[in-house]
Design brief:
There is one protein chain. The chain has about 170 residues and is mainly beta. The chain folds into 2 domains: about 80 residues, Elongation Factor Tu (Ef-tu), domain 3, CATH 2.40.30.60; about 60 residues, Roll (SH3 type barrels), CATH 2.30.30. It contains 2 helices and 12 strands. The protein has a 6-stranded antiparallel barrel. The N terminus is likely disordered.
Length: about 170
């Protein structure tokens, strides 16, 4: 049962299916979160756009192993290779002041203090110190800037940035 997201509804990718594991329909997952807590047994997730119940999840050496309802053999599991495991944004927990989900930041307009358009956030990277915003400028060039005050500040539905940090 494919269930495309209605207009205005957003999905958040939690993982991607890396491939089949064994012959019984299990799959290896590449997690986009730091741990398994975002994937809980019994949750209904969207796997390749199809609603599926997560029936089992277990840690493994490099990638966790999962089983989804309706995926019962290696061929079905292998057919999921490369698909996203998503959840509707609306079911994620509320956040504290100053916290954000990356999915809420990607796509936001970036402006300077005067409100002049500087680009859009196209990705968020983190190499250990803090989040870095990848900004696509109006001319198509991209640059990374730290997502820290006063360089880049979340202000409602936009990011106010210091253009001095744009390369």
């Amino acid at each position: 049962m494919t269930s495309p997201a209605p207009e205005g509804e957003r999905r958040v990718a939690l993982a991607a299916v890396a491939g089949a594991h064994g012959v019984g329909g299990e799959v290896r997952l590449k997690l986009f979160a730091g741990d398994l807590s975002s994937l809980t047994k019994g949750a209904t997730l969207l796997v390749g756009g199809t609603a599926r119940k997560l029936t089992a999840i277990k840690p493994a050496d490099k990638m966790p192993i999962a089983r989804f309802e309706g995926i019962d053999d290696r061929s079905a599991a292998e057919a999921l290779r490369g698909t996203l495991v998503e959840i509707d944004r609306a079911v994620l927990p509320s956040l504290e002041e100053g916290e954000y989900y990356h999915a809420d930041i990607i796509g936001l307009r970036c402006v300077d203090d005067a409100g002049e358009e500087q680009g859009r956030v196209v990705a968020i990277e983190n190499y250990g110190a803090s989040d870095l915003l990848e900004i696509e400028r109006p001319d198509g060039k991209r640059t990374l800037i730290p997502f820290t005050d006063p360089i880049a500040v979340l202000d409602g539905d936009r990011i106010v940035i210091d253009p001095e940090f744009l390369a």
